[in-house]
Amino acid sequence: MPTLTEKKSARPTSRAQGRPLPELIFGDLWEYDPSPETADPKLKARYELFIGGKFVPPSSGKYFDSINPANESKLAEIAWANVTDVDAAYVAAQKAYDTVWRKMPGRERAKYIYRIARLLQDRAREFAVAETLDGGKPIKESRDFDVPMAAAHFFYHAGWADKLDYVAPGRKVAPLGVVGQVIPWNFPLLMLAWKLAPALAMGNCIVIKPAETTSITALKLAEILQDAGLPAGVVNIVPGFGDTGAAVMGHATAAKVAFTGSTEVGKIIMRSLAGTDKKMTMELGGKAANIVFDDAPIDQAVEGVINGIFFNQGHVCCAGSRLLVHEPIAKTFLAKLKTRMRVLRVGDPLDKNTDIGAINSKEQLGTIERLVGVGIKEGAEMFQHPCKLPSKGYYFRPTIFSNVSMSHRIAREEIFGPVLSVITFRTVDEAIEKANNTAYGLSAGVWTDKGSRILKMSTELKAGVVWANTYNKFDPTSPFGGYKESGFGREGGRQGLLDYCKLV
Ligand code: ADP
């Protein structure tokens, strides 16, 4: 898609702004005036723990800072829950389970979940800004994807709460009790909704820990839970670091634990819980292949590949971080990809025109830089977006590596940043072999004109989700989860509900 660029030189001035009018050059980026989102995120200076329906200070008196990764400024102080606080949260959850929630008919539970969804919709703009400030993702993503999708998860599961007899046809289902949940920083509010909504619909009570860099929208949602009149203790939110997460996962009261995060931490949790009778679901890392055949709709595929890896700065476990491209079109496809990438806008996440915002944290930026350094050392050919990055904040240029071989670390390890590795293939079998040649198996994409090929690929790819002629599409009705080191269990749909109940 050709675009126009602005070269500043002596030329007539725009009447509106008194600036020289741009000279338009084919193939580069047109400069827009800044267009920041201005809705008030209504942030508090300090966020407490949410236990037993109330905001309470942490027993240790410790707080940590939540930083805006776009400019490194402090947004708020967050209470740090320790083992005592986590214990109090489980006591509150068990009490709510025994006295209120499990006895409540599903149709009544549905009303609360529905109310949460509506209240979230009412405050959508405010939540979107808060999410962007805290996590660094572009406002157009938090506004158009994260917040509406989070609300959709509550709506969808509200619909299930009075129809639980249909979750496992021919069987009755019952809640598990209190569940412990730990979530990551890439979709803070959406992951919260993915975890809370099915557990609530099924009649469980919850202790949940948001990620340390992105706790704000979870604690804002606690305000909504209060406004919705959700009975005290049904949901308890305990922010903190890995120590808090370990306390949530390891607590004796938890009948089930659900974790989304790195494979490394997932393995630590699984090891620590081995031998217990806790139910578990794990949604872990990924190294998805986006596979483009020579009969694919090329421009659509370029758009899909760009979306697959650069969406949310590549902070997506199902990101299409490997492009497998059919050799006959490899050169053309790569050229089109670079042209498209050059016109992505990188910068202020609050700006409505920004495509790629800030990397979530300094640590994550360090990880991306390290792995990109490895890619260069291993001899892959690097192409980076030519943009100037903001002087403050954590940013990384969208990057494409070509001439990548399957043995390169950038083809095997999860980078979790805006970095694409391009690998070629000649036959269908080679594409399948290369796509499956990874420890992960969360997702994949197939781009081809042939329906039969899509069916063959989706059968043979060892991935929980296979998108065909699209990528990164989500829906609450559709189960999501992995194969191999990408974890087990499903979130969303009827299958997701099965992971929050026992069959009786
Ligand atoms: P990422 O690499 O995406 O940051 P992590 O797996 O490190 O993912 O973190 C995901 C979530 O797991 C975060 O909420 C984090 O605080 C939590 N966490 C980190 N270490 C542990 C642990 N040992 N036990 C439980 N939770 C943990």
Describe the protein's topology.
Layout: E1 4-7, E2 23-26, E3 46-47, E4 49-51, E5 54-56, E6 63-68, E7 73-79, H1 83-101, H2 106-122, H3 124-135, H4 139-160, E8 173-175, E9 178-182, H5 188-202, E10 205-209, H6 216-227, E11 235-237, H7 242-250, E12 256-260, H8 263-273, E13 279-283, E14 289-292, H9 298-310, E15 322-326, H10 330-342, H11 362-377, E16 381-384, E17 399-402, H12 409-412, E18 419-425, H13 428-436, E19 443-447, H14 451-460, E20 465-468, E21 487-488, H15 493-498, E22 501-503
Parallel strand pairs: 3-7, 9-10, 9-12, 10-11, 12-13, 14-15, 14-19, 15-18, 17-18, 19-20
Antiparallel strand pairs: 1-2, 4-5, 6-7, 8-22, 13-21, 16-17
Helix pairs in contact: 2-4, 2-5, 3-4, 4-5, 9-10
Bound molecules: adenosine-5'-diphosphate.
Adenosine-5'-diphosphate binds at residues 182-185, 209, 211-212, 241-242, 245-246, 249, 261-262, 265, 268-269.
What features would you highlight for this structure?
single chain, alpha/beta, Aldehyde Dehydrogenase, Chain A, domain 1, Aldehyde Dehydrogenase, Chain A, domain 2, six-stranded mixed β-sheet, 22 strands, disordered N terminus, binds adenosine-5'-diphosphate
